[in-house]
Structure formats: C-alpha cells, structure tokens
Amino acid sequence: MYEFILTGFADEINRDFDVQLNEINGMGIDYIEIRSVDGKSIVAYSLDEIKAIKEKLDAANVKISAVGSPIGKIKITDDFEPHFELFKHTVEIAKLLGTNYIRLFSFFVEEGTADSHRDEVMRRMLALKDYVEGTDIILLHENEKDIYGDTAERCLDIYKTLNSDNVKLIFDPANFVQCQVETYPHAFNMLKDHVIYYHVKDAIKSSGEVVPSGYGDGHLPEIIKELKDRSYKGFLSLEPHLGMFDGFAALEGEGVSPVFEEKSDAGKFKLAVSCLKSIIEEV
Predict the structure, then answer these.
(1) Which of 132, 115, 35 is nearest to 76 (CA)?
(2) Radius of gyration of the chain (CA)
(3) Closest among 184, 199, 283, 276 to 236, alpha carbons compared
(4) Nearest alpha carbon to residue 238 among 28, 16, 86, 91
(5) Closest residue by Cα to residue 166 from 195, 133, 127, 122
(6) What is the enclosing helix (H) or strand (E) of 269?
(7) Are strands 63-68 and 40-41 parallel, antiparallel or unpaired?
(8) In the predicted model, what is the mean pLDDT of residues 241-245?
(9) Contact, 44 vs 279, CB < 8 A?
(10) pTM over cut 0.90
(11) pLDDT digits 0-9 by tens, 61-73
(12) Strand order in the sheet with 233-238
C-alpha cells in the first residue's frame, strides 16, 4: 500500500517564517522542506540560530522532511574547499532539525562540457559522500538545470559511481522537462529504483514555463500512478514556482517567468496542493 507524505518549500508561501508555519498548519501538512527562513538561506544560519528555528518548528508541530540546501550549486571551476566547509555545517543543521535528508546538486558546468568535467564532479561528490558514510545522513541528488546531473543518464552515473547507502536521488519532473528530458517513461524507468524523494513541479517543454501539476509536460499523473502501483512510501515535496518569490530568478534562470506574475503566496501554494491531490484521487 502506498503512503504519500506531503511536504514542500514553505518559503514560497511567504518569506516570513511564522507565516509559513501558520499556513502549513492550516493546510494540514505536517512537514516542510526547509530552504530559507525570513528570506535567508537555511545554511547561512549559525547552529544557535538553528536551535531557535527548531523551537519554532516544534511549537507549530511541523517537522522537516529535508534540508533544501544549495550544496553543489557552484561552478565546477569554483573553489571547492569553502563549499565543503559549508557542507559540513549543513550536516550539523540537518542533525539539529531532526532530518536525515540533505538535498544537493552536482555543480554547474558550461553547456556541452559535462563529460570533460566528470572526473572533478565525481571527486567532489565522493568527498561529500565520504564525509557522511556510515552515518544516518542521506544525500539526495536533485536533477537541476545546467549541472552535471541534469539528465537521467548522468543522474544514474552519479548514483552508480558513489555506490553508497548514503546517497539516493530526488526526481524533479519540471527540471527534466526544462532540460528536454522525457520524464516518463524514459527518466522515471531509468531512475525509479534509486529515487526516494519526489518534487512536485510541472513545466511546459516548449517554453520552460512552470505550471500547476498536471498542466505541463512532466507526466505527473503517470508518475503518481506508477508510485501508487509500486507502493511508494515517502515524500512528495511541493515546489510550485507559480509566482515570484525570493530567489525565483536564481532558481529558474533568466527568461523564465512564473505562470502568475504576482508574488507567490498561500493561495498559489494551496492551488499546488489541490492539483496534486486531484491527480492522486484521479489515478
């Protein structure tokens, strides 16, 4: 029997953390994937500040599904050592927030140069893996645009090369669509045995525009049906990107606009929840 646990990026509801928690409570969602608090990246907070954030979470009865970190979101030519120190800090943040999952990426590469940077990408990814090897921390690689692991084949390459119980995959349909990768059946079938966490986001192939789930080319209904049939038990993390919010341009890149020009808010997040629930019911 499947078990879908809803979570999501509450910073798309409001930059104010108190508002985020209040709205999530009102939607009956018990988890968030924590990316930013009061407009500041979660990994930029000190451990003492993280403890205060955890107190707010506990008071609101909200748990953390994953740390939505920016680890691996630097150029492959950038200095790795300071970034590795930030990663170690992120591991401590995850422990304090009571989650085993850290979302990360596999470094930005210039278009058409992924193969030439493979060795350095793997060296860095192996260093991250080695740091958490044997602990209960799980590194979740997300298929982001313009990084080494932006195709299903290279996501699989990362997974097989790292070959560790401490490394699994996140599947983001919209990101694959924006990279001209067929989400279903191609990417899904290639990666399904190694994916333990799904982002719920859809996009239109021709424009890259992010749209409500089920209205784009991400094959969300087919994927959700497969997850039901496979008795998937885990998180479905809502990352709507339906309106403007702090960091939208950095996440989506130049030339991509949200389907709604106005600011992202609770209403747009609720629309994303409603679309997902409709898909779950229909399939």
Answers:
(1) 115
(2) 18
(3) 199
(4) 28
(5) 133
(6) helix 266-282
(7) unpaired
(8) 63
(9) no
(10) yes
(11) 999 999 999 999 9
(12) 3-8, 233-238, 195-200, 167-171, 138-142, 101-104, 63-68, 31-34
Task: Tell which residue, 273, 194, 189, 227, has the closest CA to residue 2.
Answer: 227
Beta bridge partners of 149: none
Q: What is the pLDDT of residues 128-162, one digit of tens each?
A: 999 999 999 999 999 999 999 999 999 999 999 99
Pairing of β 63-68 and β 167-171: unpaired
Structure tokens of 31? 């988890």
253-282 per-residue burial string, b: 16 or more CB within 10 A, e: under 16: eeebebbbeeebbbebbebbbebbeebbee
Task: Pick the closest to residue 154 from 111, 203, 187, 182 (CA basis).
Answer: 187
Instruction: Name the residue type at position 277.
Output: K
Alpha carbons 50 and 258: distance in angstroms, whole number: 31
Q: What percent of the chain has pLDDT over 90?
A: 89
Strand, helix or coil at 194? Answer: coil
